[in-house]
Automatic annotation (TrEMBL):
Family matches, as Pfam families: MerC (PF03203)
UniProt source species: Stenotrophomonas aracearum
Keyword list, A-Z: Membrane, Transmembrane, Transmembrane helix
The protein, known as: MerC family mercury resistance protein
Stretches that traverse the bilayer: 12-32, 44-62, 74-93, 99-118
Transmembrane found in the keyword field: yes
Keyword Chloroplast annotated: no
């Protein structure tokens, strides 16, 4: 296991977890703290998370695929997770679907990275 690959997977897992925390915890904090409510609804936050998650995920999975080819299910899971994050950040198809889509995308990405780290550790 290469330390840089492990670091990439760990970073991607941390970013997915941060995104999940943002989607689930900040709305609860927003009810108690008006300032957090403004930050939770800021569109730039979603763009920043996606702008960090997409290249990190892409690079981590590309490196993993070069070392040991990934099965199609892992690639589909990562691609679907990224698409859900992108759609959620863009507010498509509706603002109401943003949180469920983003949570599902974060969970798919984190699961794929965890599986990849487990797979790499096993080899």
């Amino acid at each position: 296991m290469k330390p840089s690959s492990a670091l990439l997977d760990a970073g991607a897992i941390a970013l997915s977890s941060l995104c999940l925390l943002h989607c689930l915890a900040l709305p609860l904090l927003a009810a108690a703290l008006p300032l957090m409510g403004v930050w939770a609804e800021a569109e730039w936050v979603h763009i920043v998370f996606v702008a960090i998650a997409a290249p990190t995920t892409g690079f981590a999975l590309w490196r993993a695929h070069v070392q040991h080819p990934l099965p199609g299910l892992a690639l589909v899971s990562a691609a679907l997770g990224l698409l859900l994050l992108l759609a959620g950040a863009a507010g498509w198809p509706s603002h109401e679907a943003e949180t469920p889509m983003t949570v599902a995308g974060s969970l798919l990405l984190a699961s794929t990275h965890i599986w990849n780290a487990w797979r790499r550790h096993r080899h």
